[in-house]
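Look at a sample.

——
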Amino acid sequence: MSAVSRFFEDIIVLYHTPKVVRVRERRLGILQLVFTIGILVYILVKVIVIDQAYYLTEIPVGNVQSRIYRKPDAPSEYSAYNFCYGHYPDDSTAWWGKFEDERFPCRTLDDMALNPDNLNEAFISSLTFELEERYNCGLENYAPYPDSLPYHTPEAGCRVPYGPVDDDDEAGRIIRSFYTTSPDLSYLQLRHQFQAREFERRFGANAATRGYSSNYKGKLVDKNGKVMKEFPADQPDDLLDVTTLLAAAGTSLDDIGLTQGNVIRSRRALGAVISVSVYYSNRKGDMTYTYSARLLDTPGFSTYTYFYNGTTLEATRRALQRYGFLFLFTVEGDVVRFDFQQLLIQFVAAAALLSVAAKLTDFVMLNLLPNKDNYSNAKFDEVSFSNDGSTDSSSIRLVTLSRPTSTDEYMPPVPSPSPPASPVPTDETPTVVVDQRPGPIIKLRPNPPPLPPKNTH
């Protein structure tokens, strides 16, 4: 029979059934124990303790409302701030020694008026340029004024309605530039909420599926997870100092924001974008929230605010280019709920992982150890029968299973003379022991000898 025919025959007629073989080998016993302990440690520590995989998990949604307020106890005199050029008593401070090109005076700018209540963001200016821009388009270049069209349309030939007053200006004539003390004098008033919609749909609304920040305890942590400030429950809003929030993101107003050749720009002059996460979680018991801040990789941030005298059809307009700090708020979280079905799934997965220990040990035994052929012969047997019920002589080992017809066959056989004693196994000689626990009677029958020819006389 060819190898190909044998292969397809095995696919059709071959059936694999487990066989228990006890191998008394110290190396294999220790190896299986190591595999089993490693899998158990992974299940208990990683899956159960750290991941808590027996929980149902949902990421909530929500929003953050913010307002900017002035600190009541912050000094209002510009002479109290060493970056206010012309106001601070000593003009040779470390600030101008570090940022010599940033000799700007200070003025007060009402960020609350320019930035009313914001949803999921807040902006505080730090350096402001007041510009004057010239109107580039004549009245004859204006398109008609239907309600469906903006004033300056491409069809009107006026793509940039305002531009520099002088040809040498890039953006417009700078009327004045000044620092604002808003980052030093302000704090953010925050109020936020969350909702776990799927949990609320399945289990109903409760304190673990929706709520406001005033209902829970909170904290602000830095980049290393260290608590910087705590917020008790039952207070209407959270007050976050701007400089403290910048410190949580790993930066400050006096840090270097950008270096171009010999010019060094401060973070105060360039601004920045800060991502602030509000993380709700009830994994450790009651629902709590955590603020964490992250400095985004941007060279800075600025925004424009334009002022007109009542109509956009003017010869000039004024603009405020404000550099500052944009805070972007997101509500995230990890809302969990115990679920028995999830726990059952983890038990089934743990049982499957534990079976891997035996498979790994079998692989080592049958492929890597010096006596792998002996182990393979002891582990695998092949039993086959011909169609007429007689045994197939091609069997590796012939085992016939017979059902007893009388109780006599259950009687133990008459003991035979003891065979010669086998050599005593040592640690250097692995011993293979076949499990012979009680079960169906197994008779080993050799091939019967041929019958003598019949006497024809």
Q: What stands out?
A: Residues 127 and 179 are 4 Å apart (CA to CA). The mean pLDDT is 76.
